[in-house]
Amino acid sequence: MNKSQLQQHDREHLLHPFTDFHDLGNQGTRVITSAEGAYITDIDGHKMLDGMSGLWCCNLGYSRREISEAIYEQLNKLPFYNSFFQCTTVPSIELADMLAEVTPAGMNNVFFTGSGSEANDTNLRIIRRYWDLKEQPEKRIVISRKNAYHGSTIGGASLGGMSGMHKQFQSLDYIEHIQQPYWFGEGGDMSPEEFGVHAARCLDEKIQELGPEKVAAFIAEPIQGAGGVIIPPETYWPEIKKVLDQYDILLVMDEVIFGFGRTGEWFGADYYGMKPDLMTFAKAVTNGYFPLGGTMVSDRVAEVIKAKGGEFTHGYTYSAHPAACMAGIATLNILREEKIIETVRDTTGPYLAKRWAELADHPIVGEARTLGLVGALELVKDKNSRARFDDDCTAGGVCRDMSIKNGLVMRATGDTMIIAPPLILTIEQIDELVEKAHRALDDTARAMA
Ligand code: PXG
Known about the structure:
Blueprint: H1 3-13, H2 21-27, E1 32-36, E2 39-42, E3 47-50, H3 53-56, H4 65-77, H5 90-102, E4 107-113, H6 116-133, E5 141-145, H7 154-159, H8 163-166, E6 175-178, H9 183-186, H10 192-210, E7 215-220, H11 236-245, E8 250-254, H12 268-272, E9 278-281, E10 293-298, H13 299-307, H14 322-337, H15 340-357, E11 365-371, E12 374-379, H16 394-405, E13 408-409, E14 411-413, E15 416-419, H17 427-448
Parallel strand pairs: 3-13, 5-6, 5-7, 7-8, 8-9
Antiparallel strand pairs: 1-2, 2-3, 4-10, 9-10, 11-12, 12-15, 14-15
Helix pairs in contact: 4-14, 5-14, 10-11, 15-17, 16-17
This protein binds 3-[O-phosphonopyridoxyl]--amino-benzoic acid.
């Protein structure tokens, strides 16, 4: 099939995730045909630096044969076996061991799933089981944050705080949402430090309002990813810690995007010095080469679930899929052997911070922020008032298209441009990324004038 035939068949038979089918019908899909290192190429031969690591997952880029060969060998040896009914496989045990080593101290158990959404559903099941076994069944409510993203299953989407999603399904009734720590968008006249404390105190207020005896858990991404790379003010997580220390409430950190090195530490929990009870992961655990997710379970929770008799009636056919686990083992080996995370922390992260900050001087940029190897740009019409171009956030879409034209994949969340490039990016490629982003901003400014 040629390009237009592919696009036609795509329109006719494929329902895409998070897609406006009307727009897709008008514009046609971009057909990506190959990838190498940190670059992807479309069917027209247009090569682009992939500033989004696929979808926040191909952190080692696209050319790691160690991972594809590990999957292939496993598929030839034992393509599938389940982990139900007292069965197990060697790769699942080995990956569980490795995850216990690289995750924060005191997290020594893992429940495998096929995705991040499933893992957050698993968290809801574990939270309930934990409090039931502790004979505190009245602890049912889970607090999350507005504009959080925790997946697209009913559980994941209920935990998430995206208003556009909530309009299209019925949320679970035991989930509550509080203020997000988005200083640029919602901080008003407060300093970032004041606003960080304020947003964290909203958790305390909510717990008081609901009654601490009814609150089971608080879930949060260390940094909101899909919500627009919202890096909380430095005061936020320490204040959350103070709040949580006062109550008997589980902390779930959703590390689906920030796990496995994006901050320059193994996990966002390490970066912020937090001690979660449950930790969701997916995506980069296999470098995106094979679907795999899971939740790391702290000793505190695992001991209760393991010690008391009775079956935990939860699991997925593909929990601990052996080929997925082999992909995970190969990925973790590369991260460790090539000191990828240390490089982000010591070299490429600081260099991106310096170069990305230069974009803040651009006339349509209200804020340029980074942490490790993520970055965001707030597009504004007026730098002082932070006013956007329009209510429909058209600047973001324009900038995304201009960026692709200039050979860089950037993603738009409203009028916030975001990047999460592969962690293997070199200094030269960071220069290339910033220069292409600059050209995209110039083109956007012209188009929006
Ligand atoms: N938690 C977080 C923090 C995520 O970012 C999920 C859970 C769900 O994972 P699965 O594997 O079920 O997709 C995610 C996924 C975007 C985008 O546009 C982000 C995600 C997924 C799709 C698109 O930024 N994050």
